[in-house]
């Protein structure tokens, strides 16, 4: 099945008080909507492309994302790297299970005070038990702001997550 066939809205299921989200073929608008309920919403991420081979999102650097020196907090960049890699990895793994990040290494290359940033995630390796994704973040001028790599574990026994 191609990335455009069978697209659907993310679904949720789980025990009482537990929500597990499945995102096998979510479109960017659906992804933005469901992710806005969590930390991605606080950052203001807007997904513009979501597939197993490329995830792209944008957001505006605002004072609410600044650290005391008046530049965007590095944790925002780490979080964006983690979010995009996790979504791409989840789409690729599909109904076989869920992914969890096990390592996030993000390099900060250029400070940002304002403007729109673009993040693009692409897979480096996708295997039976783990995946490795690279995320590049650029500013309005096309200059690199950060680059990160996330290693994710493919979890097929999803009942064991969080216990």
Index terms:
globular; 163 residues; alpha+beta; hydrolase; EC 3.1.2.-; disordered N terminus; 38% strand; PaaI family thioesterase; hydrolase activity; 3 helices; two-stranded antiparallel ribbon; 6-stranded antiparallel sheet; Thiol Ester Dehydrase, Chain A; 8 strands
What's the short version?
This protein has 163 residues and is an alpha+beta fold. It has helices at residues 28-35, 39-43, 74-93; strands at residues 11-13, 20-22, 46-50, 55-61, 98-108, 115-126, 130-138, 144-155.
What would the principal axes of the Cα set say about the shape? globular
The N- and C-terminal alpha carbons lie at a distance of 34 Å
Q: How big is the Rg?
A: 16 Å
- How much helix is in the residues? 10-25%
The CATH superfamily title: Hotdog Thioesterase
Question: What is the strand arrangement across the widest sheet?
Answer: 3-4-6-7-8-5
Query: Sheet bearing the most strands, described?
Result: 6 strands, antiparallel
Task: Provide the β-strand percentage band.
Answer: 35-45%
Nearest-integer average pLDDT:
87
- Unreliable spans: 1-20
CATH-level-2 architecture: Roll
Counted beta strands: 8
**Helical region count?**
3
What is the level 1 CATH name?
Alpha Beta
CATH topology-level fold name: Thiol Ester Dehydrase, Chain A
Counting helices, strands and paired strands, the structural category is: alpha+beta
Give the topology string: H per helix, E per strand.
Answer: EEHHEEHEEEE
């Amino acid at each position: 099945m191609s990335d455009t066939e069978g697209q659907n809205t993310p679904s949720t299921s789980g025990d009482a008080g537990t929500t597990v989200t499945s995102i096998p073929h979510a479109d960017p608008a659906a992804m933005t909507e469901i992710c806005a309920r969590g930390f991605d919403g606080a950052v203001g991420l807007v997904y513009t492309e979501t597939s197993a081979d490329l995830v792209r999102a944008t957001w505006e650097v605002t004072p609410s994302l600044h650290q005391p020196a008046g530049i965007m907090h590095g944790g925002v960049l780490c979080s964006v790297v983690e979010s995009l890699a996790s979504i791409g990895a989840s789409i690729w793994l599909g109904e076989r299970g869920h992914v969890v990040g096990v390592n996030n290494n993000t390099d900060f290359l250029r400070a940002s005070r304002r403007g729109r940033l673009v993040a693009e995630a692409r897979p480096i390796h996708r295997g039976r038990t783990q995946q490795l994704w690279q995320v590049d973040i650029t500013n309005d001028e096309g200059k690199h702001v950060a680059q990160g790599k996330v290693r994710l574990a493919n979890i097929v026994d999803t009942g064991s997550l969080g216990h």
